[in-house]
């Protein structure tokens, strides 16, 4: 029953913070629980991230499929400093996602803080939830910086 109240609280937070993604996700999960379909929760947990990343990737690749991005645009990317910065940014993001995955495997209870932090970022900073891997990757960088600074 505690989980139900947390979901209701997330619905309220999503409504107050005008975050339809949080509100919808919490509503769907509450409905799944209330109609006694909890057996699907492990599948949602296991495959939800993959499906979310699939749809995110589809949305990002639409300009290629629709023809708005041409081969010349790709080659132009390599001839501008902004394109190179974007390439480096994508590389760093993928690296951080990998480090985040390692952190979550080593310390799975960290997901609680990452989820609450992501919700705070969505509600208060109008952020976009793209998954716990990047949040965990950034956490790794912050933890390493703290250890370096404190000498631990």
Automatic annotation (TrEMBL):
Q: Which UniProt keywords apply?
A: Cell membrane, Membrane, Transmembrane, Transmembrane helix
Membrane topology per record: Multi-pass membrane protein
Recorded superkingdom: Bacteria
- Please give the GO cellular component terms listed in this UniProt entry: plasma membrane
Location in the cell reads:
Cell membrane
Mainly localized where? Answer: membrane
Q: Which residues cross the membrane?
A: 6-36, 48-66, 78-98, 110-127, 133-150
The cross-references to PANTHER family, in alphabetical order and at most eight, read: UPF0756 MEMBRANE PROTEIN YEAL (PTHR38452)
- Name used for this protein in its record: UPF0756 membrane protein H7C19_31780
């Amino acid at each position: 029953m505690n989980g139900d109240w947390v979901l209701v609280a997330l619905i309220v937070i999503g409504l107050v913070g005008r975050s339809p993604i949080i509100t919808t996700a919490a509503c769907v999960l509450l409905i799944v629980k209330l109609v006694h379909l909890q057996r699907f929760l492990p599948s949602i947990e296991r495959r939800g991230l993959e499906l979310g990343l699939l749809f995110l990737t589809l949305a990002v690749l639409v300009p290629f499929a629709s023809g708005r991005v041409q081969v010349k645009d790709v080659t132009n990317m390599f001839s501008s400093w902004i394109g190179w910065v974007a390439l480096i940014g994508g590389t760093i993001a993928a690296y951080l996602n990998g480090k985040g995955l390692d952190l979550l495997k080593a310390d799975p209870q960290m997901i609680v803080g990452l989820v609450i932090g992501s919700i705070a970022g969505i509600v208060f900073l109008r952020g976009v939830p793209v998954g716990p891997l990047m949040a965990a990757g950034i956490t790794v960088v912050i933890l390493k910086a703290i250890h370096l600074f404190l000498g631990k």
